[in-house]
């Protein structure tokens, strides 16, 4: 964790530095600056740290002026002797507000808060990136007509689909069946093959709907689905190898 201290009192800088050296959280102090002018210049010319420890009253004015002159994206822990600025502080990237004299356990707790927030939001960003990387063209929802009404079914709710008597039926995870005006081939084009597999000419299934596999001779595989299918679902010997590869991916 790279930390920048913005503090004009050298004893306070020394105390913060000593506490950072003693903390159990690995930190690197990249610099200590004592004024608004210094801070603005440094932040314009250098990569921003992971975290700022910032006093409010500096030698040439309040540190809030820094935010007016340079865009700061990293979080801030304000370290001050004044308790009246806490509301304004939380309008300027603040994740904590520590009153002087700062106790080591308070600083440690603030650093731990930063670590927790970083992990939380990093996970959220990773999920967003994964969502953006999903192959284009695969549907996330299906609009289905029931009588005079329309309902939307999420792809994630589909268990399996089958074709029978020139009709195509979608079955959700709760066993509810919906008639579609699309062919099984049309459905297959809109489903991500990482999660859905065409078992035979009549069935497409989600990986999550497969309960059990059973060898039934001559290289064929019987697939038990959940919810239960109205008939035996068989993967032919010609398709069995590809199906097992998909299951083992």
Structural notes for this entry:
With 249 residues, the chain is α/β, with parallel strands linked by helices. It has two domains: 132 residues, Rossmann fold (3-Layer(aba) Sandwich), CATH 3.40.50.2300; 107 residues, LytTr DNA-binding domain (OB fold (Dihydrolipoamide Acetyltransferase, E2P), Beta Barrel). The strands form five sheets. Strands 2-1-3-6-7 form a five-stranded parallel sheet, with helices on both faces. The protein has a five-stranded antiparallel sheet with strand order 12-11-10-14-13, with no helix packed on it. β10 and β11 form a beta hairpin. The radius of gyration is 30 Å and the shape is elongated. About 4% of the residues have low confidence.
Ordered list of secondary-structure elements with their pairings:
Elements: E1 2-6, H1 10-22, E2 28-33, H2 36-45, E3 51-54, E4 57-58, E5 61-62, H3 64-69, E6 76-80, H4 86-89, E7 94-99, H5 104-133, E8 141-146, E9 149-154, E10 158-164, E11 167-172, E12 177-180, H6 184-189, E13 196-198, E14 203-206, E15 210-215, E16 221-225, E17 233-235, H7 237-247
Parallel strand pairs: 1-2, 1-3, 3-6, 6-7
Antiparallel strand pairs: 4-5, 8-9, 10-11, 10-14, 11-12, 13-14, 15-16, 16-17
Protein name: LytTR family two component transcriptional regulator
InterPro entries: CheY-like_superfamily, LytTR_DNA-bd_dom, Sig_transdc_resp-reg_receiver, WalR-like
Domain Response regulatory: 2-115
């Amino acid at each position: 964790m790279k930390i920048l201290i913005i503090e004009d009192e050298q004893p306070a800088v020394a105390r913060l530095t000593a506490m950072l050296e003693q903390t159990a959280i690995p930190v690197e102090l990249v610099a200590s600056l004592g004024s608004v002018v210094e801070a603005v210049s440094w932040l314009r010319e250098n990569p921003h740290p992971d975290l700022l420890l910032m006093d409010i009253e500096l030698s040439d004015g309040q540190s809030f002026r820094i935010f007016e002159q340079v865009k700061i994206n990293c979080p801030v822990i304000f370290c001050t002797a004044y308790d009246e600025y806490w509301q304004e502080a939380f309008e300027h990237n603040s994740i904590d507000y520590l009153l002087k004299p700062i106790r080591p356990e308070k600083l440690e707790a603030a650093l731990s808060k930063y670590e927790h927030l970083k992990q939380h939001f990093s996970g959220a960003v990773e999920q967003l990136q994964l969502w953006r990387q999903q192959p284009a063209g695969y549907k996330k929802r299906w609009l289905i007509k029931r009588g005079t009404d329309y309902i939307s079914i999420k792809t994630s709710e589909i268990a399996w689909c089958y074709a029978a008597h020139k009709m195509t039926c979608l079955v959700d995870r709760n066993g509810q069946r919906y008639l579609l005006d699309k062919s099984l081939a049309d459905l297959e084009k809109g489903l991500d093959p990482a999660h859905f597999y065409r078992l035979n000419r009549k069935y497409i299934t989600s990986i999550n709907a497969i309960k059990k596999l059973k060898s039934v001779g001559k290289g064929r595989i019987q697939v038990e689905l959940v919810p239960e299918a109205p008939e035996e679902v068989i993967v032919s010997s010609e398709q069995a190898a590809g199906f097992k590869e998909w299951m083992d991916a």
